[in-house]
Amino acid sequence: MMGMFLASLDQTIVSTAIRTIADDLHGLSEQAWTTTAYLITSTIATPLYGKLSDIYGRKPFFLAAISIFVVGSVACTFSTSMIELAGFRAFQGIGAGGLMSLALAIIGDIVPPRERARYQGYILSVFATSSVLGPLVGGFLAGQSMILGIAGWRWVFLVNVPIGMIALVVVAKVLNVPHTRREQRIDWWGAVTIALGVVPLLLVAEQGQSWGWTSPRSLSCYAIGVVGIVVWLFVERRMGDAALIPMRLFSNKVFSQTSVLSVLIGMAMFGGMMMIPQYLQIVKGASPTKSGLMMLPLMLGMMVTSIVVGRLIARTGHYKIYPVIGTAVMIGAMLLFHFRVEWNTPLPETMGYMALFGVGLGLTMQTLTLSVQNAVPPQDMGVATASATFFRQLGATAGTAIFLSVLFSTVKDNITKAVTAASHTPAFQQAVAQNPKALSGANSSSVLSDSSFIQQLPDALAAPFKVGFADSMHLVFLIASCVAAAAFVLSLVIKEVPLRKVSGIQAQAAAEADKSA
């Protein structure tokens, strides 16, 4: 839970601070790089941690993940540009890839699936609690100009250091999971080729709009990505059981279907989680701290629902119904954001939709991991859990890249249209006459590097900029609802496997006893 807290805190603490960071480093439209770089490296590292921990044990790799994460956090505080920050975030992501997946794998080792839902409810409540604290702390720190002589937003990364050190001490002292070492080759070529396949496709998802979807750079990324994935599949098939993600797992229908579902849920989740703070800060003019407080309904909805669902699964042994309901609720929430949330929509109404989205996430997230862990043999617990996390992170990375690309590629045209429409209104003309220099240097292009000027404009002049952003966000929420709809259809056909009543360690011990007998 300490490791999970560290990883999930960092995912959310940056969300409310990123606009302030991007404005300070003059790169609002480049903010996708900082998020995507972190998600790319954590996504690629995740299955490697799962495989290595299956062979050598969870503890050394959990400690290594925390250490790398803390060093990366310190490095982030020295950033002088958004590209530099993206590089340090990429290093930080290498550690983050092991934190969440290994925490869930350790729970799988020591707790039977029937009881695991309850414990994963607690784990997800930690995730939700840090998700509540993250935006608040991130917003508060980003809102301070200086703390102890250091820019406030840099403390967003520094705050990980004491938490990480405590986690290191706790894990080193009390985490002692029994492990029988299995001699097996390490699939380094699998790690290299999966990176070769995934990274170019994620890059083109993010940059395709600015490069041009059929430009030479985009076509090169498509080609390298496809070749990388084909080579990866070939390598994994040759490696057999030693593969990073053994291909035999995909013959398990539950595993393969849940993996696809995890990709879709990751995309839809980050579509909402990335856009809502942007809406609150840019459109509503909320400070980073206030936007963190305004995210509370979403986080509380997710936290309460995950705990309740965990207890219900432990009591009944049934879990399939929850992702079905959860994805349906997510569709509804995203459509409400698309159709109902305008630049001037009252905040209580928007916060109600946030709570609904949180409930959908709480119903869905833990059941996917539980379903995968329960469907595979106990000796594959680590690689299966890491795979579930990997596919969710893959979806999140692609979703973040695509959704931010859609937002920033459409916002210029939408602002231009809104300004043109508003320029004919008496209120806008009067505001321009009273503040003739207010819009000097402020246009649809300048907003992509620094959006802070919007809050300094008179209401009549700021309105078109806010309308432009809100209209672009509508498109993102519509795309996210379509992704959630695909997840809903898939969740209907996934077979429910009865939950085992013994832990992963007990099941492995029983299997080994049968072999020796």
From TrEMBL:
The chain crosses the membrane at residues 32-49, 61-83, 89-110, 122-143, 155-176, 188-205, 217-235, 255-280, 292-314, 321-339, 351-370, 390-408, 475-494. Its main location: membrane. Residues 1-499 form the Major facilitator superfamily (MFS) profile domain. GO terms for molecular function: transmembrane transporter activity. It is a multi-pass membrane protein. Gene3D superfamilies: MFS general substrate transporter like domains, Multidrug resistance protein D. CDD domains: MFS_Azr1_MDR_like. Keywords: Cell membrane, Membrane, Transmembrane, Transmembrane helix, Transport. It is found in: Cell membrane. GO terms for cellular component: plasma membrane. It comes from the Bacteria. The keyword Membrane applies. InterPro entries: EmrB-like, MFS, MFS_dom, MFS_trans_sf. The keyword Transmembrane helix applies. Belongs to the major facilitator superfamily. TCR/Tet family. This is MFS transporter. It comes from Streptacidiphilus pinicola. The lineage of its organism: Bacteria, Bacillati, Actinomycetota, Actinomycetes, Kitasatosporales.
